[in-house]
Amino acid sequence: MCRRQTARTRWRRAGRSGAQPMVLCSMHKLPFGWERQITEDGKVFFVDHINHKTTYTDPRLAFAVEESRSLGDLRQRFDSSTTGIQVLHGRDLTGKVAVVTGGSSGIGYETVRSLAYHGCTVVMTCRELAEGEEAAARIYKQRPSASLNPMTLDLTSLANVKTFAQAFAVRFGRCDILVLNAGVFGLGHTHTPDGFETMFQVNHLSHFYLTLLLQPLLAKCAPARVIYVSCEAHRFSKLEVDSMREDVLSPSLRSPFVSLTAYCNTKLCNVLSALEMQRRFGEQGINFYAVHPGNAVPSGLARHWWPYRLLFTLVRPFTKTLQQACASSVFCAASTDIARYGGVYINNCVPCMPSAPAMDPILAHRLHNVSLAMIETVLGKRAFNSQSLGGGGDVSLSSPSSLQSMSPSSSPQKKKQNGDDDGGGGGL
User: Fold this and answer.
1) How would you classify the pairing of strands 147-152 and 121-126?
2) Which of 77, 208, 276, 349 has the fewest CB atoms within 10 Å distance of its CB?
3) C-alpha dihedral over 229, 262, 364, 215, to 10 degrees?
4) What is the separation of C-alpha 112 from the centre of its chain, rounded to a whole number of angstroms?
5) Which position among 263, 289, 341, 345 bears the catalytic label?
6) 228 is catalytic
7) What is the full DSSP assignment across 311-334?
8) How far apart are CA 204 and CA 239, in angstroms?
């Protein structure tokens, strides 16, 4: 039991990793879904309203917060079989506002469900509002108290991305968690109405733009977290500094095109963006992560070409479930284990080394500037104007000149140590 005279106590035990577990025992904050009650004869007991259980043991004793000296000291508490809901066991996210792109199906839907189950207000974006409302209705049946807000977002249109960001800011005024989950895979050589190759714009460019638009709100709500759903396919990209150009990232219809190569390039862009954003905005209290959800996860990602659908069907018995696939995203979004660290690549809820090109700051800086130039090609100066982005008029969009001005050597260091309707941004 916790001592009643103190707000919290500490319990330390040296583990194999050298980390120091600490139990937080606040008399006023029980794990989510628990309630403290007293019997007529004065005995204290605790009720778990979610699992319909009672106990005389204070449930706060079961939750330890790792006090690690460095990222390498983190104790591995989860693995490939862990689900998103298990990652959040005992966490109370009441008061937090999260945005999950592609939240109406697949991995995105399970990410939304996991966060909403633990009190988070979740904005689930989708191309068709009816799909989002249908997905929200399924969650409401399971958890009537959930706070869900479907909103339309078309990642094939940069103008629509800005419209969404402005509408979201006016409606909510804060953003604590941003999960960039939506993605497409296996498309032919098609272009969006903005003139960019579809996979590149949906998987990278529009998410990149959305992050910059919401960055003031994220900084306002610091500590905040941004999660890019990449995948291990980023290791097969052949992008280099000299090839980091618009005609390579978004080839014209007259250029040679290999769909799988283009997809791998977008996944490398996700990791590069996460690490570059950490260098630029980490000191503002925003931590950025890139995650691998799993291999060939049955999320609907392969729906555009029948050979991929057949492959995903054959390997389905050996791959993660959707709840397991969302665990790494949820881990980065809300786990206390990783809270002190940003600019990290996560696989199976464990920090991992990405590919060598993914860690190249020059390559990341080049991608950042090329992406800004491509956005301005479509939207012009209004892409990053001085218009207030909600929040009572005290938060404004960043200017393109300030976003471009940082060189890799002058970028801020990390504060701490080291067709978008599909709900699975990675999975190869």
Assistant:
1) parallel
2) 77
3) -40
4) 11
5) 263
6) no
7) HHHHHGGGS--HHHHTHHHHHHHH
8) 14
Q: Nearest to residue 330, comparing CAs of 181, 215, 213, 204?
A: 181
If you count them, how many residues does the chain have?
Answer: 428
Helix (H, G, I), strand (E, B) or coil at 139: helix
The first and second tokens of residue 286, run together, are 């925003």
Low-confidence ranges of the chain (pLDDT < 50): 1-21, 23-27, 388, 390-396, 409-421
The amino acid occupying position 258 is: V
Using the 8-state DSSP alphabet, how is residue 102 labeled? T
What is the distance between the alpha carbons of residues 92 and 115, in angstroms, rounded to a whole number?
Answer: 9
Q: Say which residue the tokens 């005389």 belong to.
A: 56
- 331 closest CA partner among 16, 138, 149, 76: 76
Q: What is the pTM of this model?
A: 0.81
For residues 14 and 29, the answer to whether their CB atoms sit within 8 Å is no
Q: Can you give the pLDDT at residue 1?
A: 39
269-281 pLDDT, tens digit each: 999 999 999 999 9
Q: Are 340 and 68 in contact (CB under 8 A)?
A: yes
Helices and strands, counts by H and E, the chain: 13, 13
Helix (H, G, I), strand (E, B) or coil at 141: helix
